[in-house]
UniProtKB/TrEMBL annotation:
Short name of one Pfam family: Extensin-like_C
Domain (Extensin-like C-terminal): residue spans on this chain: 109-288
Keywords: Signal
Name of the protein in its database record: Extensin
InterPro entries from the UniProt entry: Extensin-like_C
Basic and acidic residues compositional bias, start-end: 64-73
Region (Disordered): 23-94
Range of residues in the leader sequence: 1-23
Domain of life: Bacteria
């Protein structure tokens, strides 16, 4: 036995010295063909590469998608083009506005219609307070209709006075005759603002107000021959005739004005109607 073991050990030594490899146990794993590697490499090389982000593109931090992406630390936010500041981000001085010229013919026609309705008014000299604040052909109205005072006197463009007179005559007075018949006739319309040089909602930044262009009036209440004034205030849930009156005249306002904001619009208008004659594309009207 010892002799056999010695012979085996000698054979192993000879194999090692000669550089021969011992047989591996089990089948040798197949390697990927060289052709497949070439195809994969070629596919990678020809794949489209991501394009670099164009200049002038940034994300919008106020965009909910951008905020979510930023929170996750990703670039999934939608890009937004940079550009000049929006008017809502500019102060009044930065908007470089001018006073809009009014047509002589249109103004004359408007004045004739005011006179036919019995509106009491006087012509004023051109108002120019700078920064786009002013009126080319202003008027001062003291009576919205015969016997109905405008308190205090209102200064604006003729189209505002005309819209106010028509609204009062055709909608407000008939509605009041039903809702407040025991209080007699309306004797005054009490306004909170006519022409004034300021931004919208008296903010420090934003777009110029239509009041600053002579295009708007804020109506705060109506006074009657007897009884209490009817004040403009939140009345959505008011089931009385007074509540019905306010909702009726607010809705009717959009037949005459291009913008109507009432106490249900926002906190800034809880005490008055904002009525203006801003001209928009396509004759669009905003009434809330």
């Amino acid at each position: 036995m010892k002799k056999i073991l010695g012979i085996a050990a000698a054979i192993v030594c000879l194999l090692v010295l000669s550089g021969a490899q011992l047989p591996q146990i089990g089948p040798k794993p197949d390697t990927k063909p060289q052709q497949q590697e070439t195809i994969d490499t070629r596919a990678i090389e020809t794949a489209p590469k991501p394009q670099p982000k164009p200049e002038g593109i940034t994300t919008n931090p106020d965009n909910p998608i951008d905020k979510d992406a930023k929170a996750k630390g990703t670039d999934a936010a939608q890009p937004e083009k940079q550009g000049p500041k929006l008017p809502s981000q500019q102060s009044l001085e930065e908007q470089h506005l001018t006073i809009e010229a009014e047509s002589d013919a249109e103004h004359s026609e408007c004045v004739r219609e005011l006179q036919s309705l019995g509106v009491v008014f006087t012509d004023l000299s051109r108002i120019d307070d700078g920064n786009g604040c002013g009126i080319d052909k202003p008027i001062k109205v003291s009576e919205a209709l015969p016997g109905i005072k405008l308190k205090p006197d209102g200064v604006f463009r003729c189209p505002v006075a005309l819209a106010l007179a028509r609204w009062m005559k055709e909608s407000v007075i008939p509605a009041a005759a039903v809702a407040a018949k025991d209080q007699g006739a309306i004797v005054s319309v009490n306004q909170a603002s006519s022409y004034i040089c300021r931004l919208r909602n008296s903010a420090e930044t934003g777009k110029i107000s239509e009041h600053a262009r002579g295009n708007a009036i804020d109506v705060a209440s109506f006074s009657f021959e007897k009884g209490d004034d009817i004040a403009v205030q939140p009345r959505r849930e008011d089931s009385t005739l007074v509540g019905a009156f306010q909702r009726t005249v607010s809705a009717a306002g959009c037949l005459y004005f291009t913008t109507v904001l009432d106490p249900e619009s926002d906190a800034a208008h809880e005490t008055h109607f904002h009525l203006d004659v801003l001209q928009r594309k396509g004759g669009y009207r905003y009434c809330h």
